[in-house]
Amino acid sequence: MAFATVLDRYTQRDIDGFYRDGLWDRLTMFGELEKQNRIRPEKVFISDSTKTFTFAEVHEIAVRLAAGLHRQGIGAGDSVAVQIPSWAEFAAISMAINRLGAIIVPVQPIYRTGEVSHILRTAEVKAVFTVEEYRKFNHVEMFLAQRGESETLETVITVRAEKPHAGALSYDELLVPGPLANLEAEIGSGLGPDDAFAIVFSSGTTSKAKGCLHSFNTLACSARIQGEEYNYSDADVQFGPSPVTHTTGLVTSLILPLIFGAATHIMERWDPEEGLRAIEKYKCTGTINASTFLQTVLGAFDPLRHDASSMRFWTLAGAPIPAPLVEAAREAFPQMKIISLYGRTENVTTTMCHIDDDPLRAVTSDGKALRGQEVRIIDFEGHEVPLGEEGDIAYNGSMHLFEYIGMPEEERAMFTEDGFSRSGDLGRMDEDGYVRVTGRLKDIVIRGGMNISVREVEDLLAGHPGVDQVAVVAMPDPTMGERACCYLTLQDEGNRLSLEEIKGYLLDKGLAIQKVPERLEILDEMPSTPTGKIQKNVLRERIAERLLASAEK
After folding, report:
1. Strand pairing partners for 525?
2. Torsion of CA 345, 351, 353, 354, to 10 degrees
């Protein structure tokens, strides 16, 4: 399969403008690493709970890994998957793949045979880095079994393997000894920053994950502009609890600190107590992730035991941000700016607030278009709607994917005639250009012909003192077409909430009776992606199946 190129998405005039405006740069990811290795080789670049690597160490390991991959037949344009936890080795592995001009295919560790098979087939993966066993699941055996069925997968490499595994190479075996200059010459030249760099698969909150093909520039552009918004510098230390094998972690825990010469600390498994200890130990200054992470940190934070005073900003992205959460964070961490951001795998960052914005902006909006980017609110025909009216949030700019791999019809349907991509997310824009995400097109509950925005209901319920997490979805109904079903997790499992209590609370808040959920489901835990997005597709399917089973009895 021939993947799309930069000229399939952008005109030469567009490209020239992106370079002129400093949105794109001539360096590849490996080129950025070489730059930092020249400037600050002994500075620690990346750490996890057990390992640290300096810029010089990452550079050396990346060259040796690239040479090993080269000897395994991996070259420019080949796809290499990486399914490991958030371990510090991810940096050198990614740099090595990029040094060859190969394409990085990050795979989230929770994915199993069904998702992995789809990714291997879609991205035409030729080699994979994985773990032997992690969280009681044998990943290497899964990939070896997949190799027997795949038309492209040839090489399976294990990271942090305790012993050799038949049929697989180890990470250490792949490190080629010898002078780096000789290995560089053996590898030859790679590709450029506008060539295919990564295929990142969407989280799959609504359907089968889509493979989004990006160049280094389309991803790094987000890091460059976010850095400007944060007043970022080499003095910063990024805190990275989101998986590095997805867009948020890849861009903000690896690319952002890399291009600014900063440091980064990543976590393989989220635990708020451990997170607070890491922030204090490494003097972390900023982070970008879903609201779930901040919410659990606030639950664990004790000012007598924890010191988070180094944190300058905490950007909330990937899931709706309840206003009470922002207000609680401002109380607990007064020195830290709470910033809202809205993005998606297809174009990385759509809107965000500036670090110097009025703090209320994070409560009332999800930010505005970044420098050099355009955002519109459009109707179903692609026409811009008047300010303040709800519509589909559409983006155009220098961070667009090149293509949905193998899904041309979905890709065509996403774009308007004038180059804006429909997000499928609903929002409103104010007179200052700030956008508020109000829900998803599929989040609308159409009850007897009335459109109910679930975001309105969720925001109100998020303020209930007994509610931890909330998700409202449509459930099928033979009379009304759809009704609203409310899923909750509770702050105190011993203090159960009833549907009548929820109804009374919402009505007291002024919600119209037609918008009040008509079914309540209490969960121990919400189904969510590793990046913290609640999987509403799972909840919709769950309630539909339950209703069908009840009807058949």
Report:
1. none
2. 90
Give CA–CA dist 410/417, Å, rounded.
14
Number of Cβ within a 10 Å radius of residue 247: 28
* Ranges of H-type helices in 421-529: 454-462, 499-508
DSSP 211-255: EEEEEHHHHHHHHHHHHHHHT--TT-EEEE-S-TTSHHHIIIIII
Exposure b/e, 454-469, CB count within 10 A at least 16 = b: bbbbbbbbbebeebbb
Q: What is the pLDDT of residue 259?
A: 98
Q: How many CA atoms lie within 13 A of 376 on its CB side?
A: 17
* Sign of the alpha-carbon torsion through 390, 441, 483, 542: negative
Helix H or strand E segment including 279: helix 272-282
Give the containing element (helix H, strand E) for 547: helix 536-552
Residue among 459, 440, 83, 435 at smallest CA distance from 291: 459
Q: Which of 93, 96, 104, 167 is nearest to 156 (CA)?
A: 167
CA–CA separation, 519 vs 502, rounded Å?
Answer: 10
Q: Which of 72-86, 348-362, 530-544 has the lowest mean pLDDT?
A: 530-544
Q: What CATH number does residue 152 fall under?
A: 3.40.50.980
Do 155 and 223 belong together in one domain?
A: no
- Same domain for 324 and 270, yes or no, is yes
**Look-up of token digits 């901040």:** 294
CA 337 from centre of chain: 21
> 420 phi and psi, to 5 degrees?
-85, 140
pTM of model > 0.90? no
Helix (H, G, I), strand (E, B) or coil at 431: coil
Judging by beta carbons within 10 Å of its beta carbon (0-12, 13-18, 19+), is residue 68 exposed, middle or buried? buried
Residue 376 has pLDDT above 60, yes or no: yes
174 and 233 belong to one structural domain: no
Query: Tell me, what amino acid is at 116?
Result: V
* Residue tagged 């009704």 (tokens): 483
Residue 10 resides in a domain? no
What is the predicted pLDDT for the residue at 322?
A: 72
**Distance, CA of 108 to CA of 86 (rounded, Å):** 10
Rounded CA-CA distance 385/377 in Å is 6
CA within 13 Å, CB half, 240: 35
Q: Tell me how crowded residue 553 is: count the other CB atoms within 10 A of its CB.
A: 4
| Cα 329 from chain centroid (whole Å) | 22
Mean pLDDT of the chain: 93
Q: What share of the chain is helix, strand, coil (3-state, %, to 5)?
A: 35, 25, 40
Mean pLDDT value across residues 370-392: 95
Q: Is residue 88 within 8 Å of 46, Cβ to Cβ?
A: yes
Tell me how many domains the chain contains: 3
